[in-house]
Design brief:
Length: 218
């Protein structure tokens, strides 16, 4: 059943194009609230152009961002000041991650590209005692709650773009206004596997087609 008419959807798409914003960057401030004010080492998996890694660098003695795309890594290096405690390297998250341990590991909108259980197992092995794993991910909608959150996000999406652009139209291309790849696992599947691997893990459904996962390695 179609809830929104094609005309309404086209209008929302036009608003998205006029006021683009980055869904993943929207969660950066929340991520910073999950980490200590000062810590030693951080690893950002799927670091992209390095925005989150540079934010973590304000608190960490050393931050390493990894991504499998050499072009993205080159861009991240170009955008990062030479005196920042942040480095980037091309690496596959499942085959050649750097040696730990890390006090903080973050992974934003990347874990759905990986075998979930194997990825969590790998992240856990890299985490220092007392360290924190923070994931912002995508799940396949299944329940009424999933669909309600998705439906609610549709009109909120351009509204957030308008607010973040302070009502000014942006010349930037549309960026991260919806998932770029559909997730295979439902939230229930993700929660079940995460709870088996990470005792005490906290998962929560979020707006804008995201969920969050936080685990403290106590």
């Amino acid at each position: 059943m179609k809830i929104l008419s094609p005309r309404v959807l086209r209008a929302l798409e036009q608003l998205n194009a006029a006021y683009p914003w980055d869904h993943n960057a929207h969660f950066h401030r929340w991520i910073l609230r999950q980490v200590p004010k000062r810590f030693d080492r951080a690893l950002d998996i799927g670091s992209g152009t390095g925005d989150l890694a540079r934010l973590l660098g304000r608190r960490a003695n050393k931050v390493l961002g990894v991504d499998s795309d050499p072009r993205i890594i080159a861009q991240a290096q170009h955008l990062t000041p030479a005196d920042a405690p942040v480095a980037f390297t091309v690496a596959d998250a499942m085959t050649n991650t750097p040696a730990g341990p890390f006090d903080v590991i973050t992974c934003v909108a990347a874990v759905h590209h990986l075998p979930f259980a194997q990825a969590l197992t790998s992240f856990r092995s890299l985490l220092a005692p007392g360290g924190r794993l923070i994931v912002v991910g995508l799940s396949r909608p299944e329940t009424r709650v999933d669909h309600l959150l998705g439906l609610t996000s549709v009109p909120l999406n351009p509204a957030m773009g308008w607010l973040k652009n302070k009502g000014r139209r942006s010349a930037r291309p549309l960026s991260m206004t919806a998932p770029t790849r559909a997730a295979d696992m439902t939230f229930a599947d993700l929660a079940r596997e995460a709870q088996n691997l990470l005792p005490g893990v906290q998962l929560r459904r979020r707006l804008f087609w995201r969920y969050t996962l936080v685990w403290h390695n106590r």
